[in-house]
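#struct-queue
[09:14] JT: dropping the first one here, sequence first, then the structure tokens:
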Amino acid sequence: MATNAATESTETKAYKVRWLVLAVAIANGFQRSFCQSCFGQINNVLVKILHVEPWQIDWLVTVRSVSFVLLSIPVALIANRIGFRNCMLAMNALQCSTFSLLVVGVRVKGGYYLMLVSQALMSGDGMIGFGNLPLLAGLWFPSNEVASAVSIQLVARGAGEAIGSVSTPLIVNIRQANDVIIFRLTMLFVPFLVLSVILFLVTYTFISESPPLPPSVAQMKKKNANANKERLQFIESLKQNCTSTLKDLLLNKSFNVFAVVAAFIAPLLRSITILLSSMLHREFPSASGLNLVSGNLLLIAWILYTVAALLTGLIITKCKKYRAIAVVGAFTECVTGILIFTGMWTKLKFLIYAGVILLGIGAGITDSSFFELLVEITYPKPLFLVTSLYMVLIGSARFIYPVVDRALLKYGAPASTAPHAILMSIAFILLVSVPMHFKRLEADTSSESTPLIDE
């Protein structure tokens, strides 16, 4: 009997249902990202029907950044406490609420504030989803599939951003009557509401807390150690040691360099997604169809982001050249910042267009490689806490970028984009010149890539 128990305790298996779990996460990530990019390209249209100012439309996206800064760590604590399945249910429930408010918000007087609340709720979905990204991969997938499972979820983000960027300027424009705009936007959000309900029901019916048998040896060890007890101990440890962990990270030279680089680079594509249409209208006031031009450019950029993020994950899995790949992404975004600024300054549209498209590639590389780099340089700190602190950092930067860019836009798009070129150049130089210490890579003695969940 003891022998059989020992045999059972070391058994691993990858279940087919893991693909359903991943599909639900992909659909959830797609919808979340769609809501981040669908407003900026029709800023002037939303100003018209909601009777608000352009900067208030920006807040339909930047409210997420504020929520990330204020709530990331509390949400991380709650998410760890309630477990994987309840996190998935909460994510889909938040999306149901979000799209319900959007459907109502575009139709009623004062609906802007309902839409603002909807985006705050979606930020909660995003906070849980960001933490669940590595958790899902490690919990349900074998070690050789973990990096790909993470990258595929980033692909969903890129696809959502791409479709969101182009769909709204395709169906509405400033010349249409308000009733037409309202009807079309309502019909745009209703299918997403229906899908959110379906995802919630699928999660409730088919997805469990964890597979009966773990997919990898690393997960088998965690399961044998009593996962529920471990989670409660982790929560207590997190409460007690949050300050000391933060202090250790602030004394970590590699983390400090990474934090500055990420804060400079990571928000650029988001800020451009929010403000590109407004920038083009500011510099080319007599041109027509600029909302659609902006949407098409960002469609291409986010498609390239998707491809770049997926390929980056696959390349990192094979070669583990974390820093070298991050440097390539940082250099690409540096060139991007210079191109967009030069194009706005000289009013050469082809430079702007080239810069926006290239930005998608650079952001896909950096977003994918930065996450792996974060895990490497902070090992063996608790992954969920480190991820939460990273979310606070990036959330702060993503809030500051569009607010400052909108304020500078009154002096012209060159004034708004000049800081991008400067900050991208500084980030690239820092990433190239300052040494980094890869602790996880040094600690990993196996030939197999260490799953992210096993941190």
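[09:21] JT: and here's the second one, same format:
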Amino acid sequence: MEVVQQIQQRLEAIAAFDRVTDSVALSDLSAKAIRGQANAWVGELSSVPGQETRDIGPVVQMEKQVYGVVIGVRSINERDGLNAKQALQPKRLAVRQQLFGWAPVGYDRFVLAGAELLTFADGALFWVERFSTQRMISQENLL
């Protein structure tokens, strides 16, 4: 099972979101994208292979990967977003509690890799939580 699917399952298990699905295009971030009060979108953001360090034998590299969880919270009839910000905090905490320190099979433990506000507009607030991990890649497991 892919790591993105495993993350989705972990987030679905906590019932903090009305919907958890694959990543969303940043251009689609609006209240229309949110079903219910809060949704989460999961995706792999980057993959950077390190240097190959062996002189002999099969090629082996460590690959750093960053995964993101975009959290969308509805913000109805408010200009400053205070209610949306308050609703966001327990969602952020729930995501971190599920993913920080967790290790998918074949990967190192997830660590925080940054978080930021994506947008607050059109009746919704969108925030991204990033997590990094690494794994060893070889000819047998290139993806």
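[09:30] RK: nice, looked through the second one.
[09:31] RK: The beta strands are 19-22, 38-49, 60-74, 111-121, 124-138.
[09:31] JT: good to know. The chain has one domain: 14-24+37-50+61-136.
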